[in-house]
Specification:
The chain is built from 12 helices and 10 strands. By secondary structure, the protein is an alpha/beta fold. The chain folds into 2 domains: 210 residues, Spore Coat Polysaccharide Biosynthesis Protein SpsA, Chain A (Alpha-Beta Complex), CATH 3.90.550; 89 residues, no CATH class. Strands 1, 2, 3, 4, 5, 6, 7, 8, 9 and 10 form a 10-stranded mixed β-sheet that branches. The chain is globular, with a radius of gyration of 21 Å. The model has no long low-confidence stretch (mean pLDDT 91).
Length: 304
C-alpha cells in the first residue's frame, strides 16, 4: 500500500530539514517523496537540493512564478503521485515516526481518509493539544463525520495530520483550488463523503504556528470569513446541506465573528454586511441581542 508524500514548500527553509527528516524517518517505509517549491524567496532551494539524490525522492519541482495558492500545489503534487494514498506534509510541520504506520494500519477497504491528533506549537514555545475524538481509534461513516465534525468547524485543520485515498481525488472537482485559505475544508468534505473516515486518538503530528503562517493574516484581513461564505454556498448548491442547515450555520458563525477580536475594523464592516445580506431580519435581531448583552447586561453583572 504505497503512500505518496507531498511537501509543498514556500519560504520555509528554516523548517524544511526537520520536516523532511521526520518524513524520511517514518517506520512505514513504502512511500515516495515529492517536494514542490512555490518560487520561494529564501534559501529553500539550497535545503531541498540536499535531498535530490535520496532514494525516496521521486520528484523535485520548482515554480518559476508563485502559484498564489497552496491548493494549486496540492493538485500538482497529487497528479505526479504514484501512491494509493496521499499525505500532504506541510513544509513547516513535523511528526512522530509512527504517523504513517498508525494511519495505514487503521484504514479499511472503504476508508477514504484517515487522520490523527495534532499538537499546535507556537513560536513562543506554548503548545495546545485539543482532542477531537472520544476513542483511541474509530471508523466513522463519511456522512456522519461531515455532519458532526466538518460543518461548524474544520476538524482536519492541518493537512499534515491526515492521509487520503488518491482515487477519491478525481471525484471532487477543482473548486478547492480557487480558495486561498478554506480550500482544504472543502477538499476534506469531498473526500470524506466517498466512504469512511478513520480517526486515531494518538497525537502524532506537530502543527507549527508562527509569524509567517497563513492563518493569522486570513483572520486579520477577513479572508477566512469571505471564503467561508463561498464554502457554505458551495455545500448548499451541491446538496450537502439544505437551506435551514445553512441558516443555522450562518447564525453560529455570526456569533463567532462578533467575538473574534483578530479582525481589522475595515474588514469587520464588510463581513458584517455579508452576514446581514444572508439572514436579513434574523441577523439584525442577533446583532441587537449581542449589543444588549455585551454593553448592558455584562456591565450590570460586573457591578453586582
Amino acid at each position: 500500500m504505497k503512500v505518496s508524500v507531498i511537501i509543498p514548500n514556500y519560504n520555509h527553509a528554516k523548517f524544511l530539514i526537520q520536516r523532511i527528516e521526520s518524513v524520511l524517518s517514518q517506520t512505514y517505509q513504502n512511500f515516495e517523496l515529492i517536494i514542490l517549491d512555490d518560487c520561494s524567496g529564501d534559501n529553500s532551494w539550497e535545503v531541498i537540493e540536499r535531498y535530490r539524490q535520496h532514494q525516496k525522492v521521486s520528484h523535485i519541482v520548482y515554480n518559476k512564478i508563485n502559484s498564489g495558492s497552496t491548493f494549486k500545489q496540492w493538485k500538482k503534487g497529487i497528479e505526479l503521485a504514484q501512491g494509493e494514498w496521499i499525505w500532504i506534509a506541510e513544509s513547516d510541520d513535523w511528526c512522530e515516526s509512527t504517523l504513517l504506520s498508525t494511519l495505514i494500519a487503521g484504514v479499511e477497504k472503504d476508508t477514504t481518509i484517515a487522520y490523527c491528533q495534532s499538537v499546535v506549537v507556537y513560536n513562543t514555545g506554548r503548545i495546545e493539544a485539543g482532542l477531537n475524538t472520544k476513542f483511541l481509534e474509530a471508523q466513522v461513516k463519511g456522512q456522519d463525520f461531515v455532519k458532526d465534525k466538518m460543518l461548524h468547524r474544520n476538524s482536519i485543520y492541518n493537512a499534515s495530520m491526515c492521509i487520503f485515498k488518491k482515487s477519491c481525488f478525481y471525484n471532487i472537482g477543482d473548486d478547492y483550488t480557487h480558495y486561498k485559505f478554506c480550500g482544504d475544508w472543502l477538499f476534506w468534505i469531498g473526500i470524506s463523503l466517498q466512504g469512511k473516515v478513520y480517526v486515531s486518538g494518538k497525537f502524532l503530528n506537530f502543527f507549527r504556528k508562527h509569524e509567517k503562517d497563513v492563518s493569522g493574516n486570513a483572520f486579520k484581513n477577513g479572508l477566512f470569513y469571505s471564503e467561508w461564505f463561498r464554502l457554505i454556498d458551495n455545500l448548499e448548491i451541491n446538496k450537502i446541506i439544505d437551506s435551514n442547515t445553512r441558516n443555522g450555520l450562518t447564525i453560529h458563525k455570526f456569533k463567532a465573528f462578533m467575538a473574534d477580536e483578530r479582525i481589522e475594523r475595515s474588514a469587520r464592516n464588510v463581513i458584517k454586511q455579508s452576514f446581514y445580506k444572508r439572514l436579513n431580519f434574523k441577523m439584525h435581531v442577533l446583532y441587537l441581542r449581542f449589543i444588549f448583552s455585551k454593553y448592558i447586561l455584562e456591565p450590570l453583572y460586573l457591578r453586582i
